[in-house]
Amino acid sequence: MGEIKKFGYARVSTAEQNEGRQIEALLAQGINDRDIFTDKKSGKDFERPQYQAMKCQLRTGDELVIVSLDRLGRSYELIKKEWAELRDQGVTVIVLDMPVLSARRNDLTDILIADTVLGVLSYVAETERKNIHERQRQGIDLALKNGAKFGRPIITMPDTFPSYYQEIKQDRITAIQAMKEMNLKPNTFYRLKQEYEAGKLIR
Question: Choosing from 13, 68, 122, 163, which is the catalytic residue?
Answer without folding.
Answer: 13
